[in-house]
Amino acid sequence: MDKILHMSASTRSKLITYGMVVVAFVLMQWLSSAHAISSSTTGLLVPICVYVSLAISLNLVVGISGELSLGHAGFMSVGAFTGIFAAQLLTDIIPTPMLRLVASMLVGGAFAALAGFLVGIPVMRLHGDYLAIVTLAFGEIIKNLLNNLYAGFDANGLHFSMTSAQALAMEGGKIVINGPQGAVGIPKLSTFFAGFLLIMFTLFVVLNLVDSRSGRAIMAVRDNRIAAESVGIDTTKYRLMAFVVSAALAGMAGALYAQNFSSIVPKKFDFNTSILILVFVVLGGMGNIRGGIISATLLTVLPEKLRFIGDYRMLGYAIVLIVVMVFSNNPQVRLFIDSLREKLLKRGGTNVPADASEGGDAS
Amino acid sequence: MGFLTNLINGISLGSVYAIIALGYTMVYGIAKMLNFAHGDVIMVGGYICFIAMNNLGLPPVVAVLLSMVGCTCLGIVVERLAYKPLREAPSLAVLITAIGVSYLLQNTALLVWGADPKAFRSIVDLPSIKLLGGQLTVAPISIVTVLANVAIMVGLTLFTTRTKMGKAMRACSEDKGAAQLMGINVNTTISMVFAIGSGLAAIAGVLLCSTYPTLMPTTGSLPGIKAFTAAVVGGIGSIPGAALGGILLGIIEIFAKAYIGTQLADAIVFGVLIVVLLIRPAGLLGQEIREKV
Fold first, then answer.
1. Which secondary structure element, helix H or strand E, spans residue B77, and what is its range?
2. How many other C-beta atoms can be found within 10 angstroms of the C-beta atom of residue A138?
C-alpha cells in the first residue's frame, strides 16, 4: 500500500491506463460469454482493438513527436497484406491459429517498419505542413502500388508481379493478393483476445518509449527543435525513431484487422482511413494516450449504433467534428474548462504537476 | 499524333488543376491552413451549374456565373462559421475543422442530390476542331479551359499587384501583425481571399465536369488533393507557381496514363511531389525562408 502511495505520478498514470484496458477487456469478455451483447457488437470488438492500437501508435507521431502524419493507413495496409501473405505461407508450418496470427502480425509489423523507414528518410528532411502533405502522398502511393500488386506462391516458391495475375506464371499454388480485388478467402484468425494483447503490447511500447531517454529526446525535438539540436540531440534520428515505431505498430494492427474479414481490398486503407485515425487522436487530446483510447472506442461504436439514421450519420459526424473543434479552441471555453479542472483537482487533493493539464504529457 | 493529343489533354487537365491550386495557394499563403474542403467546393460548383443548365434551362454563361456566386457565398459562410473562430488555434485544429467541412459538404450533397453520378453536359456545345488534315482532334472545352486559366492568372497577378485589396492580401500573407498596424483589416482580407478562392473553385468545377462528365458528391476529392499537390510542387503561396505546378502535374498524369498505366498514374503524380520537395523543399518557384535563430 505504501508503495502505491509513493510511486511516481507517471508510473501511477501508466498503471491506470493499463488497468482501464484490462477492466474493459474482462468486462466485454464476460458480457459476450454471457450473451448479454448483440452479435453486431461482438463483431465490433476486433475493429475497436485495431483502432485503439492505431490511435495509440499515431499519437506517438502526432502527439509525442509533434509531426502531422496523414498516411498512417498506408502502413496499416502494408502490414495487412504482408501479414495475410505470411499467414498463408505458414499454414502448414504453424498449425496453431493463435501462434500463426502472432507470427503474421510480427511479419506485418516488420514490413511496415521497413516501409516506415524508407518513407521516413526523405520525409524527415521536411517539417510542418510539407511533411503532412508528403505523408499523404506516400499513403496514396502505397495504396496505388498495392492496387497493382499480384502475389502468390506454389511449389516453386513465391511469385510477384505488377501487371496481372497471369504474369505470375503459377503452377497450381495459390494467388494471395490479386491486384485491385485484394486478398480473398482469408482464414479468420483474429480474436478479441489477440486484439487485447495488441493493445497491451502497443501501450507497453509507446508508454515505455515516452518514459525513456529516447522519448524525452523526441519530446525535446517537438518542443524546440533548435534548442534540442544545440544540446546535441540528433533530431532526424529521434523523429525517424518515433515514425518507424509508429509504422511498425500500425502494421501489426493492420495484420490483425485484415484477418478479421474474409476479404480485404487495398482501397480500404485510403486517405479517409488515415484521417479517421487522426480524428481519434485529435479528439482524444494530442499526446493524451488515454483520451485517444476512449475516443477511438466511442467513435467506432457510435457510428455502428447510429446506423438506423442512414445518410444523416456522416452529416452528424461532420457537424460534431466542426463544433467540437471550434468550441474546444475558443479561448473563453478553454478558460472555463481550466478553472473547472482546477476546482476538481483541489477537491480531489491530488498534486498533479501543472504541465499535465497541457496535454503534452503522455498519460 | 498521339503525343500531341496527350500533350493538349495534359495542358487542359493541368489548367484545371492550376485554377484549383490557386485557391489552395492563396488560402495557405494568407491563413497558413491546408483547406481540405476546397476540393468539395469544386463539386458544389459543378452541381449548381448542372442544376442551372438542366433543371432551370439557363444558358451556360448564366449557369457558370450563378455557380460562381453560389460558391463565393459558400466560401464566405464557411470561413465565417468554421475558420474565423480558429484564427489563433493550433494548425492541427484548423486542419481537422477543414476536414469536417469537407465531410459536411460531401454528405449534404449526398442527401440533396443523391449518390448516383449525374451526366454533366459540357458548357461548350461545339463540334471538335480537326487539325492537320483530321489527324488531330481538339475538344473545344480544352481551348476554353486553357484560355480561362490564362485569363485568371493574368487577372489575379494584376489584382494582387495593382489594386489596394490585392496589396493588402500580400501584406497580410507576409506579416499579419505589421499589416494590421498599417491599417489593413486582416479579417476582411482573409475573408476576401476565401471568397476569391471559392469563386475560382466554381469555375474549376464547371471546367472539370465539362471535360470528365461525371458528377458525384466525391467528384472534388481527388482533383482537390492533386491540385494541392500541384500548389506545393509549384511553391505554395506563389501564383505563377500554382500555374506551373498545375500544368506540370496535368501533363505528367496524362502521359503516365497513356504510356505507363492508368492504375499507376496517381502514384507517379505523388512521386513527382516527393522528388520535387526533396530537391527544392519550398517548391519550384517558392521562396525559401531561412529560419532565424
1. helix B60-78
2. 27
Nearest CA in chain B to A142: B267
**CA dihedral defined by A225, A230, A234, A236, rounded to 10 degrees?**
30
Alpha carbon distance B42, B74 (integer Å): 11
CA pair distance B41, B76, nearest whole angstrom:
12
First to last CA, chain A: 22
Angle at B143 between CA B141 and CA B148, to 5 degrees: 90
Q: ipTM beyond 0.85?
A: yes
For B97, which of A130, A314, A325 is closest by C-beta distance?
A325
Residue bearing the bigger pLDDT, A33 or A50: A50
- Per residue in A76-109, pLDDT (tens digit) is 999 999 999 999 888 888 888 889 999 999 999 9
Report how many helices (DSSP H) and strands (DSSP E) chain B contains, helices first. 11, 4
Per-residue pLDDT at A285 exceeds 90: no
Q: What is the pTM of this model?
A: 0.87
What is the DSSP secondary structure assignment for residue A62, as one 8-state letter?
Answer: I
Class of domain A2-311: mainly alpha
Bridge partner list, A174? A153
CA A38 to chain centre: 26
Of A68, A317, A322, the CB nearest to B97: A322
Nearest-CA distance B6 → chain A (Å): 22
Q: Average pLDDT over chain A, rounded to whole?
A: 85
Kindly determine whether residue B277 and residue A134, on different chains, have CB atoms separated by under 8 Å. Answer: yes
